[in-house]
Design goal:
Layout lengths: L1 E5 L4 H13 L4 E5 L2 E4 L5 H12 L4 E3 L2 H19 L8 H9 L3 H12 L3 H19 L4 H7 L5 H12 L3 H10 L8
Antiparallel strand pairs: 1-3, 1-4, 2-3
Helix pairs in contact: 3-4, 3-5, 3-6, 6-9
Length: about 190
């Protein structure tokens, strides 16, 4: 049986969810962002108990098709931005339509209706978070970061970064160098 889980965004989430599902007595056959395949076909009580357990760590079982589609869109974007080593060769609309076998316009309308935000804004916010992370590591130049995240130029990356954070990438790095603060606070 396949379970769909909301708010899985990183490898640590996968590890945490796998442990919670196994501790709840289910045998995990496969797990990825947003999805867990278990051997059993659990009853309602077992699923509700699992959902309560997941909820304590900020996760949640998803049981309707629309929510599963939204979570799949988010998982694909998170994967391509945070976990892929190569730049996105398609634009995000083509990538999602291809990966999900749905018309992008349908996905976009559904996402906006349910989330109150656009797919494009979600994609940009994930890229901004990845830029913050890469600037904090200080291992790549701005040009390399722009290439890695499929920006047309470092100038465009800088412009979008400033628009969303209020900081230029250089100012962000300077602030990070002087203070140990959480990236989410900027």
């Amino acid at each position: 049986m396949k379970l769909y889980i909301k708010n899985m965004v990183c490898r640590r989430c996968v590890i945490a969810v796998e442990k919670l599902v196994a501790n709840a007595g289910f045998q995990v056959q496969n797990i990825s962002l947003g999805e867990v395949i278990i051997s059993e076909d659990p009853d309602y009580v077992a699923l509700e108990h699992l959902n309560q357990t997941l909820h304590h760590l900020g996760f949640e079982l998803i049981d309707d098709r629309r929510s599963r589609l939204i979570e799949k869109v988010k998982s694909l974007i998170i994967h391509v931005v945070h976990h892929s080593d190569s730049p996105l060769e398609l634009n995000v609309s083509e990538y999602l339509a291809q990966e999900m076998n749905y018309d992008y316009k349908y996905l976009s309308n559904l996402f906006s209706e349910v989330e109150g935000n656009t797919i494009e804004n979600f994609f940009i916010s994930q890229k901004i978070e990845k830029i913050k992370e890469l600037l904090t590591y200080d291992e790549l130049s701005l040009k390399e970061i722009a290439f890695k995240l499929s920006y047309s130029s470092p100038a465009y990356l800088s412009s979008q970064f400033k628009k969303h954070t209020g900081f230029t990438p250089g100012h962000f790095k300077a602030v990070k160098a002087n203070k140990r603060i959480f990236v989410d606070n900027l």
